[in-house]
Structures are given as structure tokens and as C-alpha cells.
């Protein structure tokens, strides 16, 4: 499945520039979960642990790539990532299906930690661009 197809599957929010980009460009930009400064082996592990949210990370990496480096765009990108993770979670683990609550709570915890990590510690990587 292509990177944009993963994002479409969950009706994720992205800029028009994202939707207009081609798959080759997205594949170049997307590095999985984690910051560029992390060793590739650790990003591979983190990406596997957070695989459910791959679509949100594809868009977040694109937002990072095209950013002007401003705090405003940093906040927008992180907020969009959080919103997209919620969309994925609501699709895969709908609240109405109570028998999925255990899985929902596990994945919500991972989403919350990911967002907090990006929001609190991601600025140093963002402003380097």
C-alpha cells in the first residue's frame, strides 16, 4: 500500500501540498517514527512499536520537511499529528465497541506519549531545519 493510501484509509488531515506530492518524494521524506538524530536501528524499533500511527507520522514528516522553522508551524504539525492519531485510533478501536477498550487504551497511551515527546522535545530538531 502506498504512503498516501495509508493516509486516505483513515481520512487523515494533511495540507494540499502533501496530497499533491508524489510517492517517491514522500518515501524520501518519511523516516519512520522518531527524530532524524536517532540511530536508524532505534527508529526502526520505534516505528514497529508505533506502526498503527504510520499515516500520522508520514504527514508529520512532510510537515517537518516543508516547514519554515517557525514555532507556529511546529505547533500546527504536532497538533495535526495528534488529531490524525486520534482518527486512526477511532477507526481501529471505536469507542462504541467496548470489547476493544483494552487495545484502545494501550494505543491511546502510545499516542499520548508520542505527542508529548514531540511537543516537549521536538523543538530542537525542528528549529535546526
β-sheet strand percentage? under 5%
* Class of secondary structure makeup: mainly alpha
Report the radius of gyration as a whole number of Å.
14 Å
Instruction: Compute the number of strand runs.
Output: 0
Major sheet details: none
How far apart are the first and last residues' alpha carbons, in Å? Answer: 29 Å
Shape: globular
Helical residue percent? 55-70%
Number of helices: 8
How many separate domains?
Answer: 1
* Helix-strand sequence: HHHHHHHH
What is the mean predicted local confidence, pLDDT?
88
Q: Which runs of at least 5 residues are low in confidence (pLDDT < 50)?
A: none
What is this entry, summarized?
This protein is mostly helical and 129 residues long.
Task: Write up this protein.
The termini are far apart. The model has no long low-confidence stretch (mean pLDDT 88). The protein has 8 helices and no strands. The radius of gyration is 14 Å and the shape is globular. With 129 residues, the protein is mainly α. The longest helix is centred in the middle third of the chain and has 22 residues, at 71-92. It has one domain (3-126). Helix 5 (54-66) runs antiparallel to helix 6 and helix 6 (71-92) packs antiparallel against helix 7.
Amino acid at each position: 500500500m502506498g504512503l498516501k493510501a495509508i493516509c486516505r484509509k483513515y481520512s487523515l488531515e494533511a495540507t494540499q501540498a502533501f496530497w499533491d506530492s508524489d510517492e517517491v518524494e514522500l518515501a524520501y521524506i518519511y523516516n519512520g517514527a522518531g527524530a532524524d538524530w536517532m540511530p536508524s536501528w532505534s527508529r526502526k524499533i520505534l516505528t514497529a512499536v508505533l506502526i498503527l500511527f504510520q499515516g500520522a507520522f508520514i504527514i508529520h514528516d512532510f510537515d517537518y520537511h516543508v516547514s519554515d522553522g517557525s514555532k507556529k508551524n511546529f505547533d500546527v504539525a504536532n497538533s495535526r499529528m495528534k488529531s490524525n492519531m486520534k482518527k486512526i485510533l477511532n477507526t481501529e478501536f471505536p469507542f462504541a465497541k467496548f470489547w476493544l477498550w483494552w487495545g484502545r487504551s494501550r494505543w491511546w497511551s502510545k499516542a499520548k506519549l508520542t505527542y508529548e515527546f514531540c511537543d516537549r522535545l521536538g523543538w530542537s530538531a525542528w528549529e535546526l531545519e
